[in-house]
Write a structure and sequence with these properties.
The chain is mainly α. Helix 1 (about 1-30) runs antiparallel to helix 5 (about 115-150) and helix 4 runs antiparallel to helix 5 (about 115-150). The chain has five helices and no strands. It has one domain (about 1-150). The radius of gyration is 17 Å and the shape is elongated.
Length: about 150
């Protein structure tokens, strides 16, 4: 059972690390090249679309499975505790930083060109910065889980 939980934690954290990395390398890089209205419209649509039956179980499961793996596998406990710190950091950054930014973007007034530009200005840099942090924390968790599995 502990091996199945460790594999599940590794897969869930790997999926999150890949998602956040893809946002950093491709999605936000591509959106940076478009005008304000397109940027805000697409990001709003993406923020709505990601709340689905594929993402939420992985997002919630990553820290829970990592916690369970740490409880079930005393042989790799140091790596698993480090992984738990990383995955908890990913969860907290997302909930405390990225989600509130998403919510502000959803509520932003966008009736004029200046409002579209302001909505983007208030969002883009901050969101990208916090996404970089959670890319690092989720990748760190993945590395620690892999080390625990190898150990």
């Amino acid at each position: 059972m502990s091996t199945v939980v460790l594999v599940g934690a590794t897969v869930a954290n790997g999926l999150l690390a890949g998602l956040f990395f893809a946002f950093s390398c491709a999605v936000t890089a591509g959106l940076h090249r478009v005008e304000d209205r397109a940027y805000v419209t697409v990001f709003r649509a993406t923020n709505t679309a990601i709340l689905n039956g594929w993402f939420l179980p992985v997002f919630l499961g990553a820290p829970l499975l990592t916690l369970a793996a740490a409880a079930l596998r005393p042989d790799g406990r140091a790596w698993l505790v480090a992984a738990l710190v990383g995955t908890a950091g990913t969860f907290l950054v997302t909930v405390a930083r990225n989600v509130p930014l998403n919510q502000r973007l959803a509520r932003a007034t966008t009736g004029t060109a200046a409002q579209w530009a302001e909505a983007r200005r208030a969002f883009e840099g901050r969101w990208n910065g916090w996404n970089a942090v959670r890319t690092g924390t989720s990748t760190g968790a993945l590395v620690c889980l892999a080390a625990a599995a190898a150990g």
